[in-house]
Amino acid sequence: MGWKRLLEEYRRVRSFSEQLCKPLAVDDYQIQSITETSPPKWHLAHVSWFFETFVLTPFQADHAPFDTDFHYLFNSYYHTVGPMHPRPQRGLLSRPTLTRVLEYRQQIDEQMEALLSREPGADRDEIAFRITLGLHHEQQHQELLLMDIKHNFWANPLRPAYRDDLKQPSGEAPPMRWLERGGGVQSIGHHGRGFAYDNETPRHSVLIYDHRLADRLITNGEFLAFIEDGGYREPALWLSDGWARLQRDGWQHPLYWELRDGQWSQFTLGGVRPLNLHEPVCHLSLYEADAYARWAGKRLPREEELELILAEQPIMGNFVESDLLHPAPAGTRSQWYGDLWAWTASPYAPYPGFRPLAGSMGEYNGKFMSSQVVLRGGSCVTASRHLRPSYRNFFYPHERWMFSGLRLAEDA
Amino acid sequence: MGWKRLLEEYRRVRSFSEQLCKPLAVDDYQIQSITETSPPKWHLAHVSWFFETFVLTPFQADHAPFDTDFHYLFNSYYHTVGPMHPRPQRGLLSRPTLTRVLEYRQQIDEQMEALLSREPGADRDEIAFRITLGLHHEQQHQELLLMDIKHNFWANPLRPAYRDDLKQPSGEAPPMRWLERGGGVQSIGHHGRGFAYDNETPRHSVLIYDHRLADRLITNGEFLAFIEDGGYREPALWLSDGWARLQRDGWQHPLYWELRDGQWSQFTLGGVRPLNLHEPVCHLSLYEADAYARWAGKRLPREEELELILAEQPIMGNFVESDLLHPAPAGTRSQWYGDLWAWTASPYAPYPGFRPLAGSMGEYNGKFMSSQVVLRGGSCVTASRHLRPSYRNFFYPHERWMFSGLRLAEDA
Amino acid sequence: MGWKRLLEEYRRVRSFSEQLCKPLAVDDYQIQSITETSPPKWHLAHVSWFFETFVLTPFQADHAPFDTDFHYLFNSYYHTVGPMHPRPQRGLLSRPTLTRVLEYRQQIDEQMEALLSREPGADRDEIAFRITLGLHHEQQHQELLLMDIKHNFWANPLRPAYRDDLKQPSGEAPPMRWLERGGGVQSIGHHGRGFAYDNETPRHSVLIYDHRLADRLITNGEFLAFIEDGGYREPALWLSDGWARLQRDGWQHPLYWELRDGQWSQFTLGGVRPLNLHEPVCHLSLYEADAYARWAGKRLPREEELELILAEQPIMGNFVESDLLHPAPAGTRSQWYGDLWAWTASPYAPYPGFRPLAGSMGEYNGKFMSSQVVLRGGSCVTASRHLRPSYRNFFYPHERWMFSGLRLAEDA
Amino acid sequence: MGWKRLLEEYRRVRSFSEQLCKPLAVDDYQIQSITETSPPKWHLAHVSWFFETFVLTPFQADHAPFDTDFHYLFNSYYHTVGPMHPRPQRGLLSRPTLTRVLEYRQQIDEQMEALLSREPGADRDEIAFRITLGLHHEQQHQELLLMDIKHNFWANPLRPAYRDDLKQPSGEAPPMRWLERGGGVQSIGHHGRGFAYDNETPRHSVLIYDHRLADRLITNGEFLAFIEDGGYREPALWLSDGWARLQRDGWQHPLYWELRDGQWSQFTLGGVRPLNLHEPVCHLSLYEADAYARWAGKRLPREEELELILAEQPIMGNFVESDLLHPAPAGTRSQWYGDLWAWTASPYAPYPGFRPLAGSMGEYNGKFMSSQVVLRGGSCVTASRHLRPSYRNFFYPHERWMFSGLRLAEDA
């Protein structure tokens, strides 16, 4: 990417973070509802810290840190960079104030603009790579922002809406169709010149087995049939860990669903809405997705199966740019990208020959390759330009606060 | 108290709450560092809720609630009034925003002003009593505000100062003198016409044993001798529960002390300061106070012993009005009131013949009469007009975030 | 007590411990159902350790320890004697085996017999005191044994009976009568030459207020009325800590009660029995006792009130020697001693002028004087010769596995 | 397997369980040191319950259960069979006593003998399959017995030896050699007529990448170099979950190692022994194995890589029949089977086309296919006749009480 286009992209991505925060009151920036989430203020500072740490500090001459304490406060998990503020206590940081965090962002932006306005030198490629990485990093945090805000607001008994002006998705879910997919040795993993995370590499051969893929996600209506058939009360449908979690936390339905006076509703970024049976079912753990698939006599797709079909499709769908911030019924359009991250049956593991990035940036992906599971395809809170067919998202099997959904597969 | 003086007192107390919050950033209002503390925003709303619930709702004609949700959100522990938001989750309430909470305060104030401007009727005494109770309640929360802000800021690794303009206490601690106090059947408990909480009544006879009382609090310097003598490593000095707590939480010194490079410092509302050996030792649990007394070959005073001597003294000392917000060396003045709440040896229990207030206001005191211990005398964050000789403060024996200190006694 | 009578008493008490264990299978000796209980095997060893540590080691010439590891394994809480095995892990000690523990007991008995067979010397009084203390200590552990066995067996879904041959108490509970008791300065605390624990001393004056005492304990039938009136659902009846505990643990009735198909039953040392409405209600926490008293418009007695009346009564009642091991209906007999320990309103605190025993034996009582509450009068699992009018038992207010009951009092 | 040989195998396997328990005292049968382990008594009963539930109940005419309670008490995790006693409370079951459990075993054995002595009917194959499954099940529990006994004894500060007569392994570890292994599409999974668990099926194609395999396990000496190089203090070497676990539990070395006065020792089933640097390093979590591999610049093998080489080797090695009960130095022999289960890099997941067994026996394997990792090759506490090249063992990545070790691999 050219130096100038990089600067444009930098401005675009950075300003979108601020745009996402516009509906927030100062009070909202401070909330961390559970350990897994972070306060919006922390996100805004951390993504700036990323540029300061990995771009400005090494590549800006005489870089003077905005605040030396920030190095400790806004490091997320880069042990090789130094010690860090404990994650569960991010919500206790009333200082630095939001005002000061915004000043920080502004200064970083000014310095980044300056860096990108100078004549490129020998370090040009490395800088461009790191900035690109930083922008993808910030886009990930934009998705986290929306996930976290949703959970923060849901933890408030008032159930406030993040935005009152969101349009509700319309349309219906057509009958599910099954695509026949042939097997054999094929190739997956990132290739070409564009950006990718290290965990998408190297491109390598995989053995595919003949299978069938559903062309759309499972809907609320379909999932309700599972619930009404006693799906949450039948241990034979569940992975052992899933059943233990269900019992421990009293799961009876997906996160954000509520049953009152016989009516189902669902908390969304637009507030509480009646459950729309045509929308894809959302905020499932892997355990719930897997139990549904077992109940339906099917299975979850493998990540390589999804990557191969994603590679055949245009990257189009209900992304964050649609400004619905909620999954939409499939309607007549294809439902391969967007709407919801589809759980796969694939544990998150290194590809054959995987090498993490050198240095601290190698902590980005590789060290999380245990006990998590891959999801594919992006969601209604993902930036479309952030996606690739080879993109591997990953969460623990019990987690539910991300925009996760369920697509079925079966052996041929 | 006359209707007009009550209005003046109302204005005075209410505006002091806002004055205390002036040094806070919006972000600071949201923090709840531990379950025991509450966010400043919550305090501001709760004390207003108290007036709305116990004064306006019953006595204002056609009272329309400011917000019906507030009844649930800002009830602290009045089960008889209805269900309430769980205490540990007060820090998650970004909504209502601070702005809206301040509007709430303002509307309550306007309605209270109106109530106090009308001609008093037959309910005059009851209203006056409840307003007086509400003002004492708010004064308690002003003390809690300062306790909680101190802990919130300490939980931040930046250790920000609540105020940069606080004067540091000066002076020295004179040698401790022992007052001989005779025994016999005497009377304690509230008497006279002034306001008192129900837990200070009825006035009743108690049997006093001959004893001696120290005329000042134990200092940091004296407590340091205990530490340096291995006080925190010698189980024989500790109550069994205290030793278990010490080991569980790794106590090695009072809360807010820190040892770095051989130098002791102490976190205060004015930020981190070098430890002043002449100041009274502060933020002790009962266990630490009791262990010190045992080490010194003395004991803690009983609450009746302190009440009797307090009743002989003017209510003067280092209170919140001194604006030090920190205990001061005794110097030449008497150190009976203010500076620090003195732990007593007395479990918090009902007086013979105790009757809680009728109705919900009866939940104010009586239901806490188990496993807590009485403290007496007020502190540097207590309003002087809030104090009485018969005033009984109480905390659990392991708690340390209040401004608690230690005075010795011994049997004659 | 003479040397010879002491030996007889030693034999009597020690053999009773073994008699109590006769109904146990080897497997039963190993169980620790909750942290508060200890495996029967551990009790048997610990009481022997007490004699070894406090009598044989200091007073037997050339005492060679049976096993040096036992000093660590069977120390309960005497920090001044050395480190100890963590209490929650007592149930993990399959070694030493029961066989070896019984050998240990036997060797200690032989050495104690030898000690008591030699000519008494100058240390005679100290030895006699320590042996007497050790025998009272063992009697306390006999009571704990029965408490713990009951809980251990209840934790087993088979609900096995400790003994199949226990007689069931018979008789009825007569109407409750109220005794008028006058006030004034009176004396309590141990006096005379007999043995007492340090916590019963010194004898001292107390101020008594006019009051009334119920002449029997509250029955299952009376307590059932409290339950059926919604007593476990009404927070206004409960101490704040009690209500929190009730909610945390889901209390709906006393420990060991069970409601199945509309019928109440109760687990006893003789197995599950239908609830006898005439028996005293048993295994209450202080919180439940206090809530009942509040519901009944009465209060719990103070410990001094009970001591004074106990001092007027013969030490007779349903003790462990009755071999019912369960409280019995009051019938026509007096119900001051035995059946159940009566909760008092008195926090467990030192008497004025209290001095713990010197040295390690001082850890016996004093260090527990915080957050616990006094119970009086002995129970159906207490040895009658272990009791005195001044005897102070104590437990935490939430504990329920001891044989605790409820007697009402009221102000005159 | 013929009916008669099956009976012989039944006798052989069943009697071996009892032989393994011979060194235990009755007390030892009761211990459950951590939730993951079970008391030996429970193991003995559960494996008998398996035969009763899955063989005798369906196939023995007029089967009368030995004790109807056992169905609840000794069900491990078969939800489809009915509710079960909670796993963490197995150690509380003093009843049924060991004596009764042994009677149970005996009766099951008599009934099984009778069943196997009758003329086989149409259900012959199903019965034979279930008995074979039951015997493999019991062999797994024999391994668990030794794992659990080791942990139980280690949890005792006396560190008793399970057996005093165990021979210590001798010999040295030769230099590690690397085997070149070619890639391509190959087949793994069970084939042929012999018994296998459902999780080893179906046999299927896998894509193998060129790689190298170490011909022996990593030794204590080699692992010590990792420790001395700061391996447990360098987060960059660890998976994120592993580093969190290390910090939470304070890991500084493998389980059962101890450093005292500069000397390393290791707890074994033969008691505490000096650390033998030539023995394979034992009782590693996946996290430790993975960190070592990263430190060494290598990786863990994939399960298919190990299966292919195991299929080429005779099933010989240091198994439970060697009666060392501890891993031995590789010496001159091959170290592919036995000694220690080798961690692989492969999450435990279903094979393509996997179908669990029908009915309750389908709960044996499939439901555990999340968050666990595969180990291969058997160990010094595994029965050699229990092993197959396709055998998949699995544990959570943080678990360490099994006999797990570490073999290196690298990409070619």
UniProtKB/TrEMBL annotation, chains A, B, C, D:
<feature type="domain" description="Sulfatase-modifying factor enzyme-like">
    <location>
        <begin position="183"/>
        <end position="307"/>
    </location>
</feature>
<keyword id="KW-0560">Oxidoreductase</keyword>
<dbReference type="InterPro" id="IPR051043">
    <property type="entry name" value="Sulfatase_Mod_Factor_Kinase"/>
</dbReference>
<dbReference type="InterPro" id="IPR005532">
    <property type="entry name" value="SUMF_dom"/>
</dbReference>
<keyword id="KW-0408">Iron</keyword>
<dbReference type="Pfam" id="PF12867">
    <property type="entry name" value="DinB_2"/>
</dbReference>
<dbReference type="GO" id="GO:0052699">
    <property type="term" value="P:ergothioneine biosynthetic process"/>
</dbReference>
<dbReference type="InterPro" id="IPR024775">
    <property type="entry name" value="DinB-like"/>
</dbReference>
<feature type="domain" description="DinB-like">
    <location>
        <begin position="10"/>
        <end position="143"/>
    </location>
</feature>
<dbReference type="InterPro" id="IPR042095">
    <property type="entry name" value="SUMF_sf"/>
</dbReference>
<protein>
    <recommendedName>
        <fullName>Ergothioneine biosynthesis protein EgtB</fullName>
    </recommendedName>
</protein>
<dbReference type="InterPro" id="IPR016187">
    <property type="entry name" value="CTDL_fold"/>
</dbReference>
<dbReference type="Pfam" id="PF03781">
    <property type="entry name" value="FGE-sulfatase"/>
</dbReference>
<comment type="pathway">
    <text>Amino-acid biosynthesis; ergothioneine biosynthesis.</text>
</comment>
<dbReference type="InterPro" id="IPR017806">
    <property type="entry name" value="EgtB"/>
</dbReference>
